[in-house]
Design goal:
This protein is mostly beta strands. The protein contains one helix and 19 strands. The strands form five sheets. A four-stranded antiparallel β-sheet has the order 1-2-3-4, with no helix packed on it. A four-stranded antiparallel β-sheet has the order 5-6-7-8.
Length: 192
């Protein structure tokens, strides 16, 4: 992720790394996550947000790479002992919108957390991934029931439409007033 004069990425070794975008030199490295970060982090308001396969969502300060907070994922917390890592909030990338972090996990639960402190505010079931709208005023949720939902920043549904979404944790994308979503069967759906 490009963030001002930095490039931020996660590693298979469970690290978040910031490089100087101009020189490629390492600015900082956070080693707090205990396992792989395989999805793209999200940067907002001087923080980097990333889900890790260790079962936690991390908020790291962009300035120095120190962990501001970490919160156990909804699915990891609800899972049976010994399988928390499998249900980690790491299958789909997080999104920050309206002062909250939205992240789906492999248990297909969507956690909505306060971006400043990591407190869980709300959760929704049957969601494989979340993506921001083009204007940042709403979000798209890929349901495990085959429906794509548009919700407001308060979580209230604006509309839902068949999109063959299934359990695939890929994110929808909006461009020019069209929302694109792919399916596990290789189909691309475009919705107004």
């Amino acid at each position: 992720v490009a963030a001002g004069d930095r490039i931020i990425f996660g590693t298979n070794g469970g690290r978040l790394v910031a490089l100087d975008a101009r020189t490629g030199e390492r600015v900082w490295e956070n080693r707090d996550p205990g396992y792989t970060i395989e999805r793209r982090p999200f940067v907002r308001h001087n923080h980097v947000y990333a889900g890790s396969w260790d079962g936690y969502l991390y908020a790291v300060r962009l300035s120095d790479g120190r962990t501001a907070w970490k919160t156990q994922g909804i699915g990891s917390k609800a899972s049976a002992p010994g399988v928390a890592r499998y249900y980690a909030p790491a299958d789909a990338p997080p999104v920050v919108a309206g002062g909250n972090v939205w992240i789906a996990d492999r248990m297909y639960r969507l956690g909505i957390l306060d971006a400043a402190y990591g407190r869980v505010l709300m959760e929704m079931k049957d969601t494989a991934s979340v993506a921001p709208s083009e204007d940042g005023k709403s979000l798209y949720l890929r349901g495990t029931d085959g429906l794509l939902r548009k919700v407001g920043l308060d979580g209230r549904e604006v509309w839902k439409a068949p999109a063959r979404t299934g359990f695939l944790p890929s994110s929808a994308a909006e461009a020019g007033g069209v929302v694109y979503s792919n399916s596990a069967t290789g189909r691309l759906v475009a919705l107004d």
